[in-house]
């Protein structure tokens, strides 16, 4: 399977614990996005990387959230001191931007569903 | 910032009928409009997209129309089949010129196709 893969698929944790999710984008895709999706809503943008550089963060990304993309390959999203409000599906998407006229087609992974008890 | 409204939130049709989902956007700078299908337990899957310099695009049973003046775009599915049952999301983006290109999604439409 050469699509976007995310691990784990499900994570149950207790409030106050730290969690980390991993995303492996499609090979050679230079952009990687993180979105959060709550029940009955569309995905909401959290942050994105152009290669290894994190270029934008949403206001939804509090200081408890951090993301990395070392060497411009896989990415990790860490949530520290989890709260019940963090319960959601965390989606990763990747794309290949070739230039100013590129459509930036984003391909999504299956997501990591986080439940904070 | 951009805001995308999507209607209806639920849609039930008989197999073989057509389904139409409508979206409006607020930022006239947006110029790329993809549609995603999300099945239970899966991530969104791109089914069709359109750029702002095109008024209509068709791919087999699926078509998308765009009215830039009114800031409306719509998804049309003809000859619906039970496997079309899923949640559909519209989105808007400004992906060009080095911008971040993140997608702004509508809240989704749950389509049910009855056999």
Written overview of the protein:
The complex is a heterodimer of chains A (about 120) and B (about 120). Chain A is an all-beta fold and about 120 residues long. Helices cover about 0% and strands about 50% of the residues of chain A. In chain A, strands 2, 4, 5, 6, 9, 10 and 11 form a seven-stranded mixed beta sheet that branches. The termini of chain A are far apart. Chain B is an all-beta fold and about 120 residues long. Helices cover about 0% and strands about 55% of the residues of chain B. In chain B, the strands form two sheets. In chain B, strands 2, 4, 5, 9, 10 and 11 form a six-stranded mixed beta sheet that branches. A five-stranded antiparallel beta sheet of chain B has the order 1-3-8-7-6, with no helix packed on it. At the A-B interface, strand 4, strand 5 and strand 10 of A face strand 4, strand 5 and strand 10 of B.
Please give a quick description of this structure:
Chain A is an all-beta fold. Chain A has strands at 5-7, 10-13, 19-24, 31-37, 44-50, 53-57, 65-68, 75-79, 88-95, 107-108, 112-116.
Q: Indicate the low-confidence ranges of chain A by residue numbers.
A: none
List the uncertain runs of chain B.
Answer: none
Number of helices of chain A: 0
Terminal CA distance of chain A reads: 33 Å
Assign the structural class of chain B, choosing from mainly alpha, mainly beta, alpha/beta, alpha+beta, or little secondary structure.
mainly beta
Count every beta strand of chain A, where a strand is a DSSP E run of 2 or more residues.
11
How far is it from the N-terminal to the C-terminal residue of chain B, by CA?
41 Å
Which protein chains are joined by the largest interface, and how many residues does each one contribute? A-B, 28 and 29 residues
Biggest sheet record of chain B: 6 strands, mixed
Q: What is the mean pLDDT of chain B?
A: 93
How big is the Rg of chain A? 14 Å
What level of helicity do the residues of chain B show?
Answer: under 10%
Question: How much of the sequence of chain A is in beta strands?
Answer: over 45%
Mean pLDDT of chain A: 92
The helix/strand order of chain B is EEEEEEEEEEE
Radius of gyration of chain B: 14 Å
């Amino acid at each position: 399977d050469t699509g976007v893969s995310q691990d784990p698929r499900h994570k149950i944790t207790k409030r106050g614990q730290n969690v980390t999710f991993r995303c492996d984008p499609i090979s050679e895709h230079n952009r990687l996005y993180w979105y959060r999706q709550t029940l009955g809503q569309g995905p909401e943008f959290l942050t994105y990387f152009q290669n290894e550089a994190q270029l934008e963060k949403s206001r939804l990304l509090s200081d408890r959230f951090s993301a990395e993309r070392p060497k411009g390959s896989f990415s990790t999203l860490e949530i520290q001191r989890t709260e019940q409000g963090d319960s959601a599906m965390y989606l990763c998407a990747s794309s290949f931007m070739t230039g100013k006229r590129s459509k930036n087609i984003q391909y999504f992974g299956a997501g990591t569903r986080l439940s904070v008890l | 910032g951009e805001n995308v409204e999507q209607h209806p939130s639920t849609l039930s049709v008989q197999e073989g009928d057509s389904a139409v989902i409508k979206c409006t956007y607020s930022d006239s700078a947006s110029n790329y409009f993809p549609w995603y299908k999300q099945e239970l337990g899966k991530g969104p899957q791109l089914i069709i997209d359109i750029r702002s310099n095109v008024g209509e695009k068709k791919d087999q049973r699926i078509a998308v129309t765009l009215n830039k003046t009114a800031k409306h775009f719509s998804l049309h599915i003809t000859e619906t089949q039970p496997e079309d049952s899923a949640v559909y999301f519209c989105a808007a983006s400004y992906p060009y010129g080095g911008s971040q290109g993140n997608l702004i999604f509508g809240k989704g439409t749950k389509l049910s196709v009855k056999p």
